[in-house]
Amino acid sequence: MHALIVLAHPDFGSLSHGVAAGIAEGITASDAGSSFEIADLTEEAFDPRFNEADIAAHRRKAAAPADVAAEQARIDRADALVLVYPVYWWSMPALMKGWIDRVFANGWAYDDTSGKVVKKLRHLPVHLVGIGGADAGTYERHGYFSAIKTQINHGIFDYCGAPVVTSELLLDSDAGNGAAHIEMARRIGSDIFNAGHRAASGAV
Fold first, then answer.
1. Under CATH, which architecture does the 2-201 domain have?
2. Label partner for 112 (CA 20 to 30 A): which of 27, 59, 85, 174?
């Protein structure tokens, strides 16, 4: 079993990087036969700008741009997709959102050519791990928990049919909870393929 861990944070020493590494550690510790790949979008200089070539691909008038096709192939090789990101303005960073804008394209992630959307990623379990500086009370008081789930879990992944198995917010990170968050990341990693199997089988 193989997991693709996608990360978006400009500081290579960030807690987000530590959480991604913790998830990877949990994956391999739980099953020696499991593997992972970390796609660091900043380090790889992925271009998040939706451009004319992307529009042509969306309209099914051209093939996907080469960089998009490479990302789609990387996801196709994975048995689980993990997104790790800091919460910026109550959502994911623009770099990761742009990655989704370009990669989760019409014809690959879904098909919207016949007037009825066909969800094409039902086979792909998704695990979302956001890192936020505010505490849980702030998220609850302002409705951010439900807002984030609506726009990301439902708005993106349900549209493509990909089951969101893990939807975790590691909060209050500004209060020095880094070690606890990395330990939680290890636990998330150790459960990924078991949880993913349950989701794919309809048991979640």
1. 3-Layer(aba) Sandwich (3.40)
2. 85
